[in-house]
Design a protein that fits this description.
By secondary structure, the chain is mainly alpha-helical. Helices cover 73% and strands 3% of the residues.
Length: 488
Amino acid sequence: MDHRRKRRLTFITIGLIFLLSGIEYAVILPTIWRYLQTLNAATYFLGLSLSAFSFSGLLAGPLFGLWSDRTLRTKKIILFANVFEIVGNFMYFMGYSKWLLLGSRLVAGIGTGAGSSIFGFLTRNTAPEDRSTVFAAVMACRQAGLLIGPAFNIFLRLCDFQIGPFTVNKYTSPGLFMCLLWILLQFAVLFMYWDFTPEDDQRRRNGEVREEEQEEQEEEEEECKPLVGPNELTGSYGTVTSVQSRVSSVANGDVICVSPPPSPPPEDIRSSPFKSFSASKEFLREEVVVLLAAQFITLFNQTALETMVTPLTQKLFNFGELENSIMYCVCGVEVIAGFLFVRWLSGRVAERVVLALGLILCNISCVWCLIFLANPQGGFAWQLAEFIIGVFLQVLGLPFVAVAQVSLFSKITSQKTQGFSQGIRRSVGGLATILGPLWAGGLTSDLYVMMGVMMGLLALLTIMLVVSYERLVEPVTVDSPTHAESED
């Protein structure tokens, strides 16, 4: 199988990984609260179960990223991480007690840590100008999973049978379903995923060049043989010249043969990527702090609004499961369309421009929600219109900020330690997804305070972006020059 086909299949497999992560979120989230109620769990157990998934992923991300940076291999990491997804979802399916359910989300969350290794892999194997496009496509796969997930619940809610000692119903079936999907993904990773590095591509290109040069050399030697014999080259009868000599010029019947220059020895010794690494110098730079703040604040606000939406729609419009599912599906379509638009836009403008546009949309959305949704006025139709506009603006800004900050972060941090750096970035996002629901869950009856803090965080992020705007560009210097370049 040629290299291009392997590369294409590898990226397809990465898309499937993120697709399944979105499906898992969309399949389990709508039913987990009712599931906990059947196990006599207190209300706070819902927050604990959702936070446990993010917490274990927060801890696992940097560790998996560190592993991939040291080995430059991600296939074994993905296979290992998927085992936690399989075990965690099977524990969710068993569901003997609320504590087992809590542990299942904690175990499954470890599997999400492989995402940092995948983003490091994508960073090492994509050109800087193509990175935003690739990241947008990968994130769109997860959003597609969020869109498809609710459709599976339509069928899973009909399950009602026994498998040995286990009961399969509308609450336990999502765990069994996701367990089977992750097992199938293991086979996809085994047969469709290949580890390759920029060094592999360089060696492949060098091999092709050497083959072409060798073919040209043989053609030139064949052309020389009828004109000039080996005896004429040395001036003495019976001597034979080296077959490896190369004809460099032919003039007036004279042939001058020179030996080819020695090829440089390959660099088999790979230095440790963390040999001269300093976490403080890497992550406490102004531009890195701005992007990590963008990651935290946007995810904090997003998860807080997601937590607030369901109680708000029940209070204002008396929405049930069907109406909420339709709303999430429409939002999923909008997000996917947004990622496709950002993918197109990122090839024409700089990432910091995309980030600024997304932040402007997020500010407009938050102001709208603070004015019209914190204390809604008017009749049913007017309140519904206010709600739809607010949600539309909030969802519209997410793809801009998400793609721009991930792409910029991969460019301004060291390429050698991308796995670890992406793990830190995802851990910051994981912390936001833990604190966001906790913040919103306690303030659903006081939306002015909840949205006021969200607006204050966005204002702080806007000021940071304006002050550091000039620094949000890819460094001109290379990450680490080769020995040959340093000698020159």
